[in-house]
Amino acid sequence: MSSPRSVRFDEEVIRRLDRYVRSHPGSSASSVTNLFVDEALRMEEHPGIMFRPGPTGRRAGLVGGPDAWEVIGALQAVRAQDLSLAEEALVAAIAETVGLSPRMVRVAVRYYLAYPAEVEERIAANHEAAREAEAAWRAEQNLLGAQDQAS
Question: Do 78 and 94 touch, CB atoms closer than 8 A?
């Protein structure tokens, strides 16, 4: 449920907002303003997090690094492989695997703890895309393999 607010913007901000809305069909000044204010507040709450566009929409990422969901996905994979890793060893393993400092791994972890559904949705979408890509590759291999054998 949203509640209306009266907010005044500088003319230049309004021009840039209107330009952004025109270049993103389906958006509105209200939806874009809500999105960008939410993202700005999240970045304020989680220094080191930024938002970037992509083919699947805007998502949280680490400044100068991968998306937050990628770090958490790696953390979950390492944790599943070795349940005995202590906190510092786990953070160090992820930092080395992903090429980040331990501090940035912790930034991703804290963001995940604040917004777990968002991050889990990205992880699940990535797993589904990987399954679909593998199924397509296997079907192609089966088809091409069958043609090679028939020749």
Answer: yes
